[in-house]
Input
Amino acid sequence: MQSNLNDRATFLEESFLLSSTADLSQKRLWQDALQRHLRAFEKGAHFVHEGENWSFVVCVLDGWLTLSKSLDTGQVQILDFAMHNDIVEPTAGDGRTAIFNVQAQTDGVAAVIPLPVWSALLHDLPPLAQLVYATEAAVRSRRAERTLRLGKGSAEMRVAHALVEFCIRLGDRCGEVFHVPLTQQALGDFLGLSSVHVCRTTRRLSRAGILELTDHMDIRVLEPHKLADLAGLDPQMFRREIMPGAK
Amino acid sequence: MQSNLNDRATFLEESFLLSSTADLSQKRLWQDALQRHLRAFEKGAHFVHEGENWSFVVCVLDGWLTLSKSLDTGQVQILDFAMHNDIVEPTAGDGRTAIFNVQAQTDGVAAVIPLPVWSALLHDLPPLAQLVYATEAAVRSRRAERTLRLGKGSAEMRVAHALVEFCIRLGDRCGEVFHVPLTQQALGDFLGLSSVHVCRTTRRLSRAGILELTDHMDIRVLEPHKLADLAGLDPQMFRREIMPGAK
DNA sequence: CGCTGAGTTGAAGTATTTCAAAAGCTGTGG
DNA sequence: CCACAGCTTTTGAAATACTTCAACTCAGCG
Output
């Protein structure tokens, strides 16, 4: 996982889909702002812990961030993963407190933008505001789908759903191998399951010929249709709902 | 539950905390917009079903709305309840499809504002935009807390948490009786539990002297501290995080 | 007065967790 | 190149939290 700021130009160029809608000067303004707050991070690095003061927005350019919360008992729930083109807003309704932990799941690059700067940008760049609005709608969609399954779905359904979601968010190449940088423990924390049960469930799926699991979460979905069925999803529809800018 | 449009003036006057930040002309603009889209609703009425086309934002002035999703099996998960001063955005990342059902849990009044109008308002009224931003942060906070408990909390913790949350959102008078317009079935759909188990759990709490449950969800919390402990919450902190505009 | 929907309780069933132990990789230092 | 430590995955067996099924009560209501 090679991530350094040298790739900046590429990242910024294709970042946040802004190219299509904005004129050149707006694009510059946005890219400058991003660039000024750019920061490379290493796997395991903490951005913020829940309860701390934190008034920044994090725009992820590369790598995975984990958003999590935990109980006094030490039980961890992962609320979401943020990756390329995702925007993380950890600040609570009071405008200062972070409501969850933000930690790097892999190496990567992000822009950490102070809230005042962020508001100004949103106000000055209507195309950005629009983009952020669409992105938030997409985030709400995928969290709604997950909450449904967290509350009412079986372990099998939850695992299947997560895999379909990852596959889509990682570029939608079913049939090919894609890598999910998570341990079974982390996947369990995401799905509200024990790591042991995640293991049993994935093994069952792979024995049923629905997917292939090589070491450390390299995944090849052999039967996308069956997997989507188990997840209770229409993949086309799901894709449109959770990917901002999709038709 | 008497809700008709005659109370309009009152609602609009105190609605959405806008009075404090906006100047008079802005306030007028906003109130006119609200008023133009005002609509009374009756318990059980459907605003929209998941999957339908829907490009409106719903601002709740009075009453409860239920936001829910369901599986093919018929299992229902309630994602959230919206009440006084809440804003509901049911539209997915594609800008057209509704991602959940919106249904009236009680009689009430809401403004149903088309998305284009809404965007224009947000752009023309910076104080409104700011308010909406804070409200969304509060919504994220309370959903994060819930997701944590849905994934990792016991039934007892989930029930306790929901009750504390309702108590706070309904005006924070612990020790007094407050009414939650939900059946145990609905509460179960909210918490990812069967109605039977909700019953057992609330009974246990009431037998332990932590709360009093009179018929049909009139609740008096006798031991707020114990209830918050069971919920794994610091009530002060929790209040600040989930109530927009709180200090 | 009998109907309907909601709450309550018991008993049996089941999905998932927990505990425990072994096996498989990965990196490190000798 | 091997040995060892540390972490992840895998598997089995026992425990448990919650669900499902079913029966009964109770209140409101036509």
Summary: The first strand of chain B starts at residue 38 and ends at 41. Chain B touches chain A through 56 residues (CB under 8 Å). The domain at 5-139 of chain B is CATH 2.60.120.10 (Jelly Rolls).
